Amino acid sequence: MKPAVILYKSLPDDLRAKLDDHFSVTEVKDVSPETVKQHAEQFASAQGLLGSGGKVDDELLAAMPALRACSTVSVGYDNFDVDALNQRHVLLMHTPTVLTETVADTMMALVLSTARRVPELDKWVKAGQWQKSVGPAEFGIDVHHKTLGILGMGRIGLALAQRAHFGFGMNILYNARRQHEEAESRFGARACDLETLLKESDFVCISLPLTEQTHHMIGAAQLKLMKPSAILINAGRGPVVDEQALTAALKDGTLHAAGLDVFEVEPVPADAEILTLPNVVALPHIGSATHETRYGMARDAVDNLIAALNGKVDKNCVNPQIQA
Ligand code: GLV
Prior knowledge:
It catalyses: (R)-glycerate + NAD(+) = 3-hydroxypyruvate + NADH + H(+); (R)-glycerate + NADP(+) = 3-hydroxypyruvate + NADPH + H(+); glycolate + NADP(+) = glyoxylate + NADPH + H(+). This protein is α/β, with parallel strands linked by helices.
């Protein structure tokens, strides 16, 4: 008999067929308590769980006593209680490699569109306000040869450094838990403490996961250290930045602009004050959202679940230490 699996994300047809070849699949819309209650038997017998978003916590795990592996279609896994998974010996698989270049492209897009005010001026032209040659009121600020500070030098940070160094001749600073020799030797990146990075960077780019340590790592005090001409880019997780403090800093001129792909609450409420600010470029968490990359993530997530439920995990596992 094929192992039972809960799927809570729709997959391209070929990947769904592959999943069906290996498992007996129940597709549900999410993993909310209501859905779990509705499909209690299927959740109780499932050995695998594949999808993205939604909290996978002790309450959900208690309803899934047969669970052996979760496979998330994402690199981030802050919505999973990893300690609870470890206690229950449930593997957690994710997609850390396939999206790297695409997310770095998104970050560079935010750097360029905030500095050159692309969305704001697009609206301005379409509203018929282009009546004569532009003047200082429409000018932006240069990106090339400026200093770009990266918080979190993981795969995505490295791909961003590559773009900034080779494409834009930028000077790279980074703050990370470990020294990154490749970033230093290939892109001339300089490791520094958070305070120095915030003080010296023209662009501060956040590519950090959300953990207890990174929650509100950038608050009012840190924003004050930044240059008034500086721009903050966040494509990691919203709660790494205190959004209220950021809104205040953008309003009072402590900070020039912000490019945000992530928010403290997602979807960001339509009436959030931060969305009213002209110096904010807001995106709906599209870091990895291209046809090619989202397909690649779904493909990896399916392969990851097949590997995990067959005892063949050799990559993409958050907690490999729990394997017997
Ligand atoms: C996107 O935010 C991801 O974690 O993949």
